[in-house]
Amino acid sequence: MDGRLRTVLVTAVVAAFALVTPLPASATVPGPPPVGPGVDEIVSSDNLTQLANVPRRDPFTGEASYGTDIAFQGELAYVGNYDGFVVYDISEPTAPQIVSQVLCPGSQNDVSVSGDLLFLSTDSRWSDDTCSAAPQPQGLLPYWEGIKVFDVSDPADPAYVTSVATACGSHTHTLVPDTAGESVYLYVSSYSPAPELLDCRPPHDRISIVEVPLADPAAAAVVAEPVLFPDGGNPGPGSDTTTGCHDITVHPATNLAAGACMGDGVLLDISDREDPQVIERVRDDTNFAFWHSATFNDDGTKVVFTDELGGGSAATCTAAVGPLRGADGIYDIVDGQLEFRSYYKIPRLQTEQENCVAHNGSLVPVPGRDVMVQAWYQGGISVWDFTDSTNPVEIGFWERGPLSSTELTLGGSWSAYWYNGHVFSSDIQKGLDVLAVDDPAIAGAEDVVFDVFNPQTQPTYGG
Description:
The protein contains no helices and 30 strands. The chain is an all-beta fold. The chain has a five-stranded antiparallel sheet, with no helix packed on it. Residues 1-33 have low confidence and may be disordered.
């Protein structure tokens, strides 16, 4: 069913955006107070500390060589970049080292890993599926976009294995283990069809499902294209028109998935990996502009959806935008239905020179509580508690000042994830950051260790 907004008990977050009481006419009016740190200045709460930063290195130093999403396995972090991906040794969190860099342009180059395999998303048109392809902006000419597969058994020398073309490319993908352990599935999210695109013409109200046989990854292929929105989805204009999904997060322990699909938020039953079924659908045409991503709590009874107002390139953490837009929406799952509880947005104003909006994050594995770390682009990194779904509370924050004091330059934390005791952040322009969190509110999280962590494939930790 479609969700309906309820009256929201707005927490102390609103105070940061409250209007100042006008001064009497005779009073001296001071200049506007400074907002946030200065250019490249770092500020944080006392409980978050930066341990390391590894700057981008050639050939990934151009302004458009954006750092993107992260996947983890053992003592390695794999970080996507619009120009390829980077493998880091994170065995010493205070001194991460670059192991290798693979030049393979193709936005966004989001990554996931499974065993010796790495999967890379390409959502831009190229002359072919190689890493030396030329851009192919004219959609009426033949082009390629989709999934690339690499063998990373030697992390110092990843090897290209194969590719799979998918309709409308692969903006993001989600790794879903099969129940028999013989294959992995990739749920490929893509959107924005257009009549002039040969392989992405409307309607496009579906996802692509790629099966990768683990014994023969070169045989990877599209095995299904389930239509999630047979009625066409949200027509807008309050939210973006639904023409596919931006991101899907799966919770294999409960056979659930949460899809953030532009104008719709959906809950899916993925018991049949090749035939996911929409079991619930919600909308928020008042405050959500673009349903971007989703995170379950550990037991799969809540979902945090993000609204990427402005597409990630706008300054939306401002007094003019307010605390309810460009925020997280917290939903409880009650008898299979998504019930809205509250919004969460960082309680700090940012400047007009900083792109800032809710973006990628993950759970901090705190036993018995629902705690999340999250990237907000140039709004930095926030650690917050949503155990009480109606009253989310920030635990701590860390942020780097704007890239410029005069113009908005795209930057900031694209993804911030907790992995085996630390927060790892992929900064669009600044490379890899590593943070420590020291707060009794996350007691026990440091004891939870995963062998592999793809943030959109949520493991459970018995929270």
